[in-house]
Amino acid sequence: MINPRLILHPTDGSPDARRALEFAADLAGTKDARLLILHVQAHRGGGQIPPELKEYTRIEHIRVTEADILHEAAEAVVETAKQSAEALGATHVATEVREGDPVRAIIEAAEETGADLIVLGSRGLGDAQGLLLGSVSHKVAHVAPCTCIIVR
User: What gap in Å lies between CA 53 and CA 90, rounded to an integer?
Assistant: First the structure.
């Protein structure tokens, strides 16, 4: 039987990722393991103000860039997942947002944290790209430094 100390759950907020989170949170709660919820931003965003926000930024005297919006969205994904994990019984939950290639970032996070287990969804939000180039979960499972569980 698997007895992880640290479970890494990469998420993009997709339905499969939510199912994987339920599995990871239940296991973390049952085994009293730490759960690290990771979201990887593949695209950082630019320093430009999106056209639809130019008038808002002028009126409110603030500067909101595409990068700011993407970062806030990423933080919302991990915070929502953290709240769900805690509601499901996980007691030691941390979150992290990284930028870059999702596969590379997930593998690096697993290595850096000493994760014993990676629990991720079988398909994320990038289904069309995954069908052509291979899914993130498939690639992670092949190069991960620890056990991977892919949840459908």
Answer: 38
pLDDT, tens digit (0-9, with 9 covering 90-100), for 78-104: 999 999 999 999 999 999 999 999 999
Q: What's the mean per-residue pLDDT of the chain?
A: 88
Domain ranges of the chain: 6-43+75-151
User: How are the residues of the chain apportioned to helix, strand and coil, as percentages rounded to the nearest 5?
Assistant: 50, 20, 30
Distance CA 54, CA 64 (A): 9
Angle at 5 between CA 89 and CA 28, to 5 degrees: 15
Q: Taking the chain, what is the end-to-end CA distance rounded to the nearest angstrom?
A: 21
- Homologous superfamily (CATH) for 6-43+75-151: HUPs (3.40.50.620)
Report the pLDDT value the prediction gives residue 59, as an integer from 0 to 100.
74
Looking at residue 115, its pLDDT comes to 98
Chain segment 40-52, per-residue pLDDT in tens = 998 877 666 667 7
Cα dist. 22→5, 10, 75, 121 in Å? Answer: 17, 12, 19, 10
User: Rounded to the nearest 10 degrees, how much is the dihedral formed by the CA atoms of 112, 23, 85, 116?
Assistant: -20
Nearest by Cα to 103 from 8, 6, 7, 10: 10
